[in-house]
């Protein structure tokens, strides 16, 4: 006869097996907790459903690798990796995979600004011209940079602009007397034990310059970078292209590299008010009000959306190609979702319809699974949100896939002897000397950075790239190639051949 401690009702036993199975899939997650009692009964089926949705959406969007974490009350409910961090070498994505978090970096920067406000060292109504000569008058305030309302007449309209946001770096460095990287290390990475994160991909490459961070830190950052995911982009018809890594620098707007485990520590610190006071977050997590009294899409450091009566606080990261990220909080439910990926598709698809969390399929799946009462709720919805996230996000996903298919260009075969006539070096204005090489019936472009791209012919003298919106046209004069023209969206660059 089994002891009372081992006697389970069938439903309880099934839930226990489910939790054990999920723990095995997710690996050992610091600060994670195994659901107990009613929590197990509620959360285990939700986690099973959500992880299936996440992987299905990843497959539809052709994302090679994705890592996820869900938190409740500041504690990890579940974390897991899907697909591959390195597709060519079949390196699995895990909760420990390192990614560029792109614009999620902005939320860290916003917290640093708010900390100065709490300390009485900064006023959000202070002119940015006090810190940067790029601003010729006092009309643009700190609050306008945080809320992305600094263009034209400051405070009139919202327009997401990372370049304008970047001026907060000058504010922080002048106020603190420290480099921004050092502020990130001393405020977030060290106190929160974010040991796997890196303050910029280039920080480990110049030990003398960044000695202020400590040699032990630099050694760890270099070791962490070995786990950095490879970046990819989806061309169309199932073709996934290996991309180049993003620029190696660190800004107020982007540059932080992290894992979902470390981002979970950051999120938990936000929720337990280890970084900002409750009243400060309350101010930051309210839609910024325009000069005309209209609530806008952004708060002071975060996007803010009211969806069917529930406030959503969020941010996305997007490198254009290669990496994207999503950070969603439901403050009233003490729930958070963080997703990091090595493809732009995680965030990119949502822009097919608008710039709002309600058009992101992963976010919608999360809300439907963990806040199911929203499905039939009635209440105010922000002007930027769709009425039904299921309808809107699925439409955005389908439109994104179709858009990729529509942008595919058909390649033709060109005589290898003709390709050889295009080989050589070309002086591209303001971009340095680029080299063309030909071999085995293929033509390659090598940029000044050393990155190699294959060119595909759509006419004997006209070529395109699959992962760049460029068209390369070779121009002959007197029977020989004298230059190449590079059409880049609305810009055409004339690059003479270097003799």
From TrEMBL:
Keywords: Signal. Pfam families: Beta-lactamase, DUF3471. SUPFAM superfamilies: beta-lactamase/transpeptidase-like. PANTHER family: BETA-LACTAMASE-RELATED DOMAIN-CONTAINING PROTEIN, D-ALANYL-D-ALANINE-CARBOXYPEPTIDASE/ENDOPEPTIDASE AMPH. Residues 51-346 form the Beta-lactamase-related domain. This is CubicO group peptidase (Beta-lactamase class C family). Residues 1-26 form the signal peptide. Residues 409-489 form the Peptidase S12 Pab87-related C-terminal domain.
């Amino acid at each position: 006869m089994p002891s009372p401690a081992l006697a389970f009702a069938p439903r309880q036993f099934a839930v226990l097996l489910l939790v054990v199975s999920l723990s095995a899939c997710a690996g050992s997650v610091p600060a994670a907790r195994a659901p107990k009692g009613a929590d197990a009964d509620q959360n285990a089926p939700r986690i099973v459903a959500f992880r299936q949705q996440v992987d299905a959406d990843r497959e539809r969007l052709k994302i090679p690798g994705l890592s996820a974490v869900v938190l409740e009350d500041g504690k990890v409910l579940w974390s897991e990796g899907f697909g591959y961090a390195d597709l060519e070498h079949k390196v699995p994505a895990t909760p420990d995979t390192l990614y560029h978090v792109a614009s999620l970096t902005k939320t860290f920067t916003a917290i640093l600004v708010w900390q100065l406000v709490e300390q009485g060292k900064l006023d959000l109504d202070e002119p940015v011209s006090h810190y940067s000569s790029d601003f010729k008058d006092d009309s643009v305030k700190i609050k306008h940079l945080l809320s992305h309302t600094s263009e034209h007449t400051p405070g009139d309209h919202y327009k997401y602009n990372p370049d304008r946001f970047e001026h907060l770096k000058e504010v922080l460095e002048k106020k603190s007397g420290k480099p921004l990287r050092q502020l990130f290390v001393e405020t977030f990475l060290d106190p929160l034990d974010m040991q796997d994160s890196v303050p910029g991909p280039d920080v480990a490459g110049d030990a003398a310059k960044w000695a202020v961070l400590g040699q032990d830190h630099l050694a760890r950052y270099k070791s962490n970078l070995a786990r950095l995911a490879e970046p990819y982009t989806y061309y169309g018809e199932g073709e996934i292209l290996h991309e180049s890594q993003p620029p190696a620098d660190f800004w107020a707007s982007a540059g932080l590299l992290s894992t979902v485990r470390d981002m979970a520590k950051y999120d938990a610190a936000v929720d337990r008010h280890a970084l900002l006071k409750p009243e400060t977050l309350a101010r930051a997590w309210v839609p910024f009000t325009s000069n005309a009294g209209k609530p806008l899409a952004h708060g002071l450091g975060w996007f803010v959306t009211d969806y069917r009566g529930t406030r959503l606080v969020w941010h996305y990261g997007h490198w254009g190609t290669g990496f994207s990220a999503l950070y969603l909080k439901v403050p009233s439910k003490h729930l958070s979702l963080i997703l990091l990926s090595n493809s732009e598709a995680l965030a990119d698809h949502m822009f097919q319809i608008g710039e709002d969390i309600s058009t992101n399929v992963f976010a919608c799946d999360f809300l439907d699974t963990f806040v199911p009462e929203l499905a039939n709720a009635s209440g105010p919805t922000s002007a930027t949100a769709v009425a039904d996230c299921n309808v809107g996000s699925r439409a955005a996903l389908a439109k994104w896939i179709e858009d990729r298919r529509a942008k595919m260009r058909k390649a033709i075969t060109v005589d290898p002897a003709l390709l050889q006539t295009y080989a050589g070096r070309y002086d591209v204005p303001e971009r340095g000397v680029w080299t063309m090489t030909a071999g085995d019936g293929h033509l390659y472009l090598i940029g000044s950075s050393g990155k190699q791209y294959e060119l595909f012919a759509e006419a004997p003298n006209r070529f395109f790239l699959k992962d760049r919106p460029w068209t390369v046209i070779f121009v002959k004069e007197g029977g020989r190639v004298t230059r190449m023209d590079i059409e880049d969206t609305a810009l055409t660059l004339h690059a003479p051949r270097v003799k």
